[in-house]
Design a protein that fits this description.
With about 475 residues, the protein is an alpha+beta fold. It has helices spanning about 5-10, 10-25, 60-65, 70-80, 80-95, 95-110, 150-155, 160-170, 170-175, 185-200, 215-230, 240-245, 275-285, 295-300, 305-310, 315-320, 325-330, 345-355, 375-385; strands at about 30-35, 45, 50, 55, 120-130, 135-145, 205-210, 235, 245, 255, 260-265, 290-295, 335-340, 360-365, 375, 395-400, 405-410, 420-435, 435-450, 465-470, 470. Strand 14 (about 360-365) and strand 15 form a beta hairpin. The radius of gyration is 22 Å and the shape is globular. Adenosine-5'-diphosphate binds near residues 143, 361, 367, 397 and 398. Homodimer.
Length: about 475
């Protein structure tokens, strides 16, 4: 059953509703800074969002939430398995400099010996719903973000916006079905648990942020949850850490004279985030006693190459011996993933992709949106690299084909039009391990993002997707 709000309303009604919607977003704090003034809050706008919530099958939604604590454990287990990480990333680091440099830091820390036994993971596992021939949908993971997973803050405030819009649109019953969502609290719970364990009242949570801070309000929601608990937060850039940071003799990290309990990376996942100085700063933070969210091994556990290796037969079993039900639940969310390493298996992947490029997505080892290749581009790129080790910088993945729905995407400066849209469901996870003990392992809420089907790639920050809410059907 799909509600077609757009056909229930004429254009004038939609226009009125759009005005109501934008005001509601502002009143509810669904905010973003503008492109023109990304580092000032003097003039701000609404964060892009859909006029209407999008349908998501109830069973699939609950499946995604239920598997999250298993994914948390999986990421954590991978991060502790150095031989797995070595093997899984061996080919990638030969040809991908960025992953190679991250891996060098990992090796350095491993050799030096771990200093901090508190591990904090805040991640977001993203899914699309693959449409089956019988009309049902299967939950398929797109990727898991183990660093800088965003929009938990804003997603805590979008439900009230859609509730209000639906009421004004005369859809009171649907309005009541918009789910509560509070990833801000869930993420803050993880941060606060790790801060408690660190055990110093004066020590701060350091948000490691980008130079351009358009999405600051998303951060602030989680930040403010921490301040409510009297946990001090500072926001700094790599450059600040490089200039003022040092480790004392016990390897405690100090930045701007403040002891740092937790480094929360909201930056540092793209090559362009790093100068030589920033690489030095990253290494210093990784070597320190501060809790890193994520630490370098957890960062690497979230790479697309690791995702592909996990899909090999027997690999999940290695991480969950004696827990076949957990293995089944995780594996049920995997789309087809294929290696492009040199050898017969990789050759087969190349042939398969070239034969039916529209069935696949070619992914380089990158994060942040806009890097993947589709259709004819797959052929172009693969024809160029198929004979060389360069191809090992990519993985191939089945293209997930969700059922399109109609909606209006509201974004500053974009004319109003009805779009054919695809949605991506994200689920936030938070966990804290102290030594061998998982002391917190939770699903921390959800995020629905929706984009026009004209775009095959790109998230909210990339200006493609917008914030949404699931309406369970
Ligand atoms: P990034 O790290 O850049 O966010 P993703 O793997 O999340 O990389 O891919 C970016 C976007 O590309 C996703 O948000 C989704 O819209 C699209 N995408 C990625 N993988 C697939 C896939 N297997 N099938 C369909 N679309 C995909
Ligand atoms: Mg993504």
């Amino acid at each position: 059953m799909q509600v077609r709000y757009d056909v229930l309303m004429d254009n004038d009604l939609i226009k009125d509703l759009v005005d109501v919607a934008k005001d509601s977003a502002l009143l509810n704090g669904v905010l973003m800074r503008t492109k023109e003034t990304p580092n000032s809050s003097e003039v701000v706008t609404y964060a892009p969002f859909t006029l209407f919530p999008s349908p998501v099958p109830e069973a699939t939604f609950h499946q995604a939430l239920a598997v999250q604590t298993h994914y948390n454990r999986l990421v954590d287990k991978i991060s502790q398995d150095s031989s797995f990480l070595e093997e899984a990333l061996a080919s990638t680091i030969k040809v991908d400099d960025f992953t190679g440099r991250l891996f060098n830091i990992y090796r350095h820390v491993l050799q030096e010996g771990k200093t901090q036994s508190i591990v904090l993971g805040l991640n977001r596992s993203d899914y699309m719903l693959d449409q089956n021939e019988d009309g049902s949908a299967s939950l398929k993971q797109i990727e898991i973000n183990t660093i800088a997973a965003s929009f938990g803050g804003l997603a805590s405030h979008t439900p009230n916006v859609h509730r209000h819009i639906l009421k004004v649109a005369g859809r009171l019953e649907d309005s009541k079905r918009i789910l509560d969502n509070n990833p801000s609290a869930g993420l803050a719970k993880g941060l606060s648990k790790a801060w408690d364990l660190y055990g110093s009242e004066r020590a701060v949570v350091l948000y490691l942020v980008e130079e351009l801070q358009r999405n600051i309000f998303d951060h602030r929601y989680v930040e403010n949850e921490l301040w409510k608990r009297n946990i001090p937060v500072i926001r700094r850039q790599f450059e600040d850490v490089a200039k003022t940071g040092f480790l004392d003799q016990d390897k405690r990290l100090f930045v701007d004279g403040r002891e740092v309990a937790i480094v929360y990376f909201r930056n540092g996942y793209m090559p362009q985030n790093y100068t030589e100085q920033n690489w030095e700063a990253r290494l210093m933070m990784e070597r320190s006693m501060a809790v890193k969210c994520p630490d370098i091994s957890t960062h690497l556990a979230g790479t697309k190459k690791v995702q592909q290796e996990l899909a090999r037969p027997g690999v999940l079993e290695r991480f969950f011996p004696g827990e076949p039900d957990v293995v089944d639940k995780i594996r049920a969310t995997f789309a087809g993933l294929y290696t492009l390493d040199m050898g017969p298996e990789g050759d087969k992947t190349v042939a398969m992709a070239l034969a039916k490029p529209d069935k696949f997505v070619l992914k380089p080892q990158r994060e942040g949106g806009g890097n993947n290749l589709y259709g004819a581009e797959i052929c172009q790129v693969l024809e160029g690299v198929k004979q060389s080790t360069e191809r090992m910088a990519y993985i191939l993945m089945d293209k997930v084909q969700p059922r399109p729905v109609h909606n209006y995407l509201l974004r500053l400066g974009t004319p109003l039009k009805l779009s054919t849209c695809l949605s991506e469901l994200g689920v936030f996870g938070a966990y804290v391990r102290h030594g061998q003990d998982m002391v917190l392992n939770e699903c921390a809420g959800h995020l629905l993002r929706t984009k026009s089907d004209e775009h095959s790639d790109g998230g909210v920050a990339a200006g493609v997707a917008v914030l949404d809410n699931p309406l369970l059907v």
